[in-house]
Amino acid sequence: MLENLVDLDLSHNNMLGPISAQMGMLRSLGQLLLEANKFSGSIPSSFGNLSFLQNINLSNNKLGSTIPPSLFRLNKLITLDVSHNSIAGALPDDVSGLRQIDLSSNFLVGSILESFGQLDMLTYINLPHKSFKGSIPDPLRKLGSLASLDLSFNNLSGIIPMFLANFTYLTTLNLSFNRLEGKIPEGVVFSNITLQSLIGNAGLCGAQRLGVPPCLDRSRSSNKQLLKILLPTLILASSAIVICLYLWFGKKTKEGTEQCFC
Q1: Residue 247 belongs to what domain range?
Q2: Are 158 and 172 in contact (CB under 8 A)?
Q3: Whole-prediction pTM
Q4: Which of 141, 135, 59 is closest to 101 using CA atoms?
């Protein structure tokens, strides 16, 4: 009888214990809402059988272990929210047609998935507090529909990629508390960005309104370094020339005086 069930909403209850693996038998399910309960244990791998599933919300529970790779292979899945759990480990290497993904407040580790670049319709990425490391991957430049990106409180390094300044629909960007450095790009989302979205990256430089140091002109910086090296040498050389000329003129003057007495 439940095989034809399309929507299942059990959210905001006090349901305890593991999520039943038998939910994977509800093959017509398009929406599964289990958020704000007290479910524990792991996410059933049987969810990979829900081929019609478009929206799944497991947030604000006590779920642990890892995210089953089969969950990312659901072709119709649009929204995945597993935020505020105790999910650990690395993310799967393969994802498919998601548009919104929220993995915040878990214990995920590793580098940001370069496979996210395959999700050209993705509009929302929320990955704060993940201990992600490495640079912001170049494949993310393909996400032209992205409207919100939160990578705060990670361990990201390198520069802020210029392609983020070309995202027309990007209105929310948070890169605070990482190890990013270099010049803050200009344009689109960066035109209205505030210090709160960039704070905690000591190596950033850019516009004065953002409260970061100005970026030094590389050519001027190089010239200053060269001048610091050459200036002492020039001073010593000039001093040597002056002394030599002084001694030479002193000698000539002495010789002229001696000739007069003769």
Answers
A1: 217-262
A2: no
A3: 0.73
A4: 59
